Amino acid sequence: MKIITGIVIAIVFYLGIVHANPLADQSQVTVIQVRSGDTVWKIAAEHSAERQDIREVVSVIRQLNQLNHNGQIQPGQLLKVPKQSM
């Protein structure tokens, strides 16, 4: 029984770490309008801190805006992006 309890606690802890993303906090989000030529990668690069992994920011932008794995965006579209942390 102790083994099962330990496994359940480990799984819950793991899921908490995986799904807890400080960039996804709504108070740390701003809204931008997509311009012609923009890509999710370009926007992520513009809204990331100097040593931050751009892939992480791309992932957060996709999550915040419910974009699919292709991350297709259109000019004029409004996107939530994480505020840059210095």
List the helices and strands and how they pair.
Blueprint: H1 2-19, E1 29-33, H2 40-46, H3 54-64, E2 78-82
Antiparallel strand pairs: 1-2
Helix pairs in contact: 2-3
Explain the overall architecture.
- With 86 residues, the chain is α+β, with helices and mostly antiparallel strands.
- The protein has one domain: LysM domain (Membrane-bound Lytic Murein Transglycosylase D, Chain A, Roll).
- 42% of the residues lie in helices and 12% in strands.
- The chain has 3 helices and 2 strands; from the N terminus they run αβααβ.
- The protein has helices at 2-19, 40-46, 54-64, and strands at 29-33, 78-82.
- A two-stranded antiparallel ribbon has the order 1-2.
- Helix 2 crosses helix 3 (54-64).
- The longest helix has 18 residues, at 2-19.
- The termini are far apart.
- 15% of the residues are buried.
Counting DSSP E segments of at least 2 residues, the number of strands comes to 2
The end-to-end distance, rounded to whole angstroms, is 47 Å
What composes the largest sheet? 2 strands, antiparallel
The oligomeric state of the chains shown is single chain
Strand order of the largest sheet: 1-2
- For this structure, the CATH topology is Membrane-bound Lytic Murein Transglycosylase D, Chain A
Number of helices: 3
Low-confidence stretches: none
What's the architecture in CATH terms?
Answer: Roll
Taken as a percent bin, the fraction of beta residues is 5-15%
- Give the structural class: alpha+beta
| Envelope shape | elongated
User: Rounded to an integer, what's the Rg over CA atoms?
Assistant: 16 Å
Helix content: 40-55%
How many independent structural domains? 1
CATH superfamily: LysM domain
Compressed to H and E, one letter per element, the order equals HEHHE
CATH class: Alpha Beta
Average pLDDT reading:
81
